[in-house]
Amino acid sequence: MTSRSLPHASELPPASLDGWYVLHQSIELDWSGLRARDPAEAREALKSFAGLAEKWSAGAEPGWSGVYRVAGSGIDFLILHFRNTFDRLIEAARELKLSAWADHVLVREEYLSVVELGLYSLTRELSGRIDPEDREAWDAALADALAEERRKGYVRRRLEPRQPEHMPYVCTYPMDKRRNPGQNWYALSLEERAGLMAAHGRLGRRFAGRIVQVISGSMGLDDWEWAVTLWAGDPLEFKAIISEMRYDAASAEYAEFGPFTVGKRMSAGEFEGLLASVAAR
Ligand code: 76R
Which pLDDT tens digit goes with each residue over 112-153? Predict the structure, then answer.
């Protein structure tokens, strides 16, 4: 096995860079409560939420929040929050809970993660030059390499993702890599994992221009290991990429999937219109 040539490097995790914090919120509207309210009051309550959504999408720099109308999944909306610090992410969640309409917004699920760029090929290349057992040399070389990565424009854009306007659809789900006996991602050598991820990346890049993907890590933050968030201009692109990836070894042999949520980003105006129609009923 190739890992024999890297006796000290085989168990290395991939170096990675962390970007913006992410909170996925699954929201259900309390329809009967809204209908039971005085229509003018209900309208006011919903307007306060529309105002919050507008503020978030325009003025939450560095970061943003998006509201998506969901089909399926038994929920009405998905809210995606991206913020540069954990504290600012808590603040966004708090604002929602304190808003005038909070009584009618049922947060069914939340998922916490942080945008993660796994650097398999960099880690493999570095471990070929520097012995990771030599901690001092390894840490210094790794810190330099990571700082250099972080300076690259395209790396920054990956770490601080923005949804392209022409890709209003979202598909999101949590994922694990398997830890079954004989099929354990975490027991593979760095060589093997880097090889599988390089093939995964090649497949992924065939969808360039059709899919934008955000991988956010949640080890130690939430119940799964990653959240996957995909954006596209057509929901069928989600079916296409996920079907193709199922046959690729990194997913075919090692991926476990959680529940999928699919929706469409709403502009603040569309959102307000939708809410007004709810309140008018
Ligand atoms: O070396 C490389 O080029 C790979 C870059 C890369 C990494 C490290 C990459 C590329 N991904 C990486 C990590 Mn991915 N990805 C998924 C899914 O449905 C499924 O089967 C899996 C869900 C999709 C659709 C997807 C798309 N990726 C990861 C990780 C973390 C693994 C780890 O660290 O061990 C997961 C869980 C994951 C899952 N990936 C790409 C894509 C696409 C479209 C690309 C190419 C994008 C680009 O390079 O611009």
Answer: 999 999 999 999 999 999 999 999 999 999 999 999 999 999
pTM listed for this prediction: 0.92
Task: Ligand 1: list residues with CB < 6 Å.
Answer: 14, 118, 120-121, 175, 177, 197-198, 200-201, 204-205, 207, 211, 213, 215, 226, 228, 230, 241-242, 245-246, 251, 255
- CATH number for the region 9-17+121-264 comes to 3.30.70.1030
At 189-226, the pLDDT tens digits run 999 999 999 999 999 999 999 999 999 999 999 999 99
How far is the centre of ligand 1, averaged over its atoms, from the C-alpha of 36 (Å)? 46
- The residue among 107, 103, 44 whose CA lies nearest residue 275 is 44
Question: Which CATH superfamily is 20-114+270-279 part of?
Answer: Apc35880; domain 1 (3.30.70.1030)
Give the model confidence (pLDDT) of 106-118 as tens digits. 899 999 999 999 9
